[in-house]
Each structure stands twice: as structure tokens, then as C-alpha cells.
User: What shape does this take?
Amino acid sequence: MTIVVATTDRESVQSDVLPDGWEMVIGLEVHAELATQTKMFSPAQNEFGGEPNTNTHPVCLGLPGTLPVVNKKAVELSIRIGLALDCDVQRCVWARKNYFYPDMPKDYQISQYDKPLNVDGSLQLPSGQVIGIERAHMEEDTGKSTHIGDSGRIHDAGYSLVDYNRAGVPLLEIVSRPDIRSANEAKEYVEELRSILVAVGGSDGKMEEGSMRVDANVSVRPLGSDKLRTRCEIKNVNSLRSLVRAIDYEAKRHIALYDNGEEPTQETRHWDEAAGKTRSGRSKSDAEDYRYFADPDLVPIDPSDEWIEEIRSSLPKLPRQLRQGLLNLGANSEAAALITNRGLAPLVEETVAKGADAKQVLTHAENNLAIEGAAELDATAFADLVKMQTGGELSATQAKTVLADMVTTGKTPAELAKQHGFEAMDSSALEATVDEIIAANPDEWQKFCEGDPKVRGKLQGFFTGQVMKATRGQANGKLVNQLLQQKSG
Ligand code: MN
Assistant: This one.
């Protein structure tokens, strides 16, 4: 569905991959599968990866005499996402979008057309740039065709297989305004949108499982122009890397055509990852071709103000707010983005609130918690671990090991430290080791004792490293440092 509207106010942006004097104009349509138990209009399971045609129901198969029943949870999740994108939530009407593909046995898709659920929102990128959201409407997913033949394309297939497990999965189609000005900005938009979807529990956002699918409408225009030129819609983009490559390719293709006195034709194009090119698909259908009309089997949905406000008040902090919270704790902006994208920001905040050292908590979240299930870690246990570390009971290496086990086993840090035999090193044993290392490196030690702060800092790293090596990471770095300072002065 592409309804072109004026872009929101945005200054012209010279592209850094296009010749001087050209800018890109990009709008994205993102289909997000909603995280419901069952499908949009039937009680079949909404589940990825089952045996083909096991999650089906007469409604998903479009059998005669069946009637759709709206999944309330899908509507609630769609409103959650709409509110998180600052949309107005309005009375909406289901529409039939007619087209004929074997993966859609009714021969129409139930969607929304002129009365979508969410309209007129926006999304702020980490850079601060605001991208308009035109609409976010509900619809059902299609099934999946597999064409059996050398190319995997329908034209030279011997036969095709169809799997209806995906048919009827609830979707929210989120349509941006053509406010995006580069492939990298498109990538940032998708990343930020994905974080929002995951944060509000609307979708799992897994691009690799098709939970989030991106189509890009791309055109170019002379810098400073405010007219929209002919766009092409690129489909089949299933990774962020492909998205960037496909947009850059397509924009350059348009400029080559204009330079040649030609014009691009409005059409759907497919991204061929191996060839690094977009290829012409069907010529883009206009809205008339779909013969939209209000679905007579479904009544409009008119969410009450009370329901909308109830959903609004249950929204968690959004990624933008979470990142700001992490910046306030001392994270740099890359770490704040990384930790937020991993879904760990609420855990970090809670752990620090329980008295754990913010710097250590952030370091663990950034470096040691890229583990499935880390977001469900108990904040009290995490805080206990960090306190053991700052108190000298565990070295950094030991703390990392214990932390990983906490995620997988759910045991307390004390239990796990004991299990691993991570007893704190006896301080006299540690001092003896430090003395040995000093004795073995007399030149470095002399420089350490006489050096300026810069030299001392470097050599401190050297001595600590040697002690760690000798103790196989058992020593507490902070105590080693204290001993070095005492002994040198
Ligand atoms: Mn759609």
C-alpha cells in the first residue's frame, strides 16, 4: 500500500554516495508480525518454524462458509505500537484487498485501506532526526510459496509448494513518510523501529525469521527540489546489509537513467543479493487494481478512549528514554545503543538502583551479556555479583564466568563462585606473587617507581597483567594495584 503524501519539513541532504547535486528520497514500509498466541482471524497457532501446514484452520485456508473473528490481542498490540510511535489511534475499517496468488486461498487479503487504525505518528532516530509515520494498519499475512526449480523463481519452476502456516498471522504494516535521505538513515530507522517493537512487546522483531520485513520506496531528485519523482519499490530485502546495498544501487540506477535522458518506471523490483542488483518485478499495481472495499464480514473497530489510555499507561520506557538513562549512568552513546538493543537497559537501571557500581554493571552489560536470556537475569543477584567483584571477592575474569552461569542456571553468584572454587585469594599469597613479579622485572620496577604518571600507568598495566597470568586470573586487579602503589612509595 503506498499512498504518497508530502514529506514533513526536512532540509535537503546531499547524499555521500550519489553525484553532487542529488538527494535520495526514501520511504519504508515495514511489515511486523505481531507477538500473539493465535492468528489474526482464527484460533490457529501463530508460531514460526512448524512442519508445513500444521498451524492452519478452515479460516486460514479460506474454506467456504468460514467467517473471520478478530483477535483482540492483535488489536491491543497494534495500538501499543501505534502509541509508541506517537500515532493517533482511530476508528478503523477492515478492507478486502483483492489479488490472486496461491499463497492466499481466499483471493483477497484482509487489510485496512482508507481508515487505518494508527495515523500520523513519528519516530525519532538516535541522531535526533524525526521521521514521519503516515500510518500503521492491521492486516493478515499470506502463506508461503516455494517454487521448485533451478532458480527458485516461479517462471521456470516445475511445480510449487505452498505452506499455510503463515497465512493469517497478524501483521502491522508501518508506513513511513518519504522523509529518509540515505541508506544508512533507512538502516537506523529499521533498527530503531525494531527496538521499539521489541520494547513494547509488539513483535519479536526477528528479521531472520521474517517477523519484520522491509520494502523500500526509493527515488532521487535534484538537491533543493521539493517534488517527488517516480519511485520504485524494492522487495525481498531480508537483512539490514541488503537494505543499505539495495537502496544505494537503486538510487544510482535512477540517476544513470536521468543522465541518459530516460526516466525510471514505477514498478516493484526485487533485490538480488548475489548479483548485487535490483531486478524488475511486476509493474506496480495501483490502488484501483486491488479493488478495495470494506469487508462485509467484519465490523469496524472503534477503540474506546478508556482502552487507549489504559494501554498508554502500560507502555514501558521506550528505547530513546532507556538510552538517555544509560547515558546518565555514564555509558557512552555506542554502549547505550548496544545495551538497549539487547534489551538489557531495564536490568542495568534496576541493578544500579540496588547499589551496584554503575561502571561495572555497564561493562558487564556491554561485554559479557550477549547471551540469550540475559534480560531475564535477576537484578538483585546481578547486583550481588557486582558487589562481590568491587569488594575484591571475585576478579573480573571470575565475575564474567559466574555471570554467564547465572544466566543459564539461575543460581546465586555466591553458590556459583563456590562451585567454581573461586575463593578470594589470600592476601598474603597475593602479596608474595606481587613480590615475585617485581623481583623478576627489576628494570620495569625501577621505571615504575621513578616514572611520571603516564609511564606509571603503562607499567601498572604490565605488572597487573603479569600477576593475572601468574594467578590465572584469580587475583583482584584493584588489590594488585593497591599493593603496587604501596610498594613503590
Ligand atoms: Mn501489506
Observations:
- The chain has three domains: 22-311, 317-420, 427-487.
- The pocket of manganese (II) ion is lined by residues 1, 31, 139, 173 (CB under 6 Å).
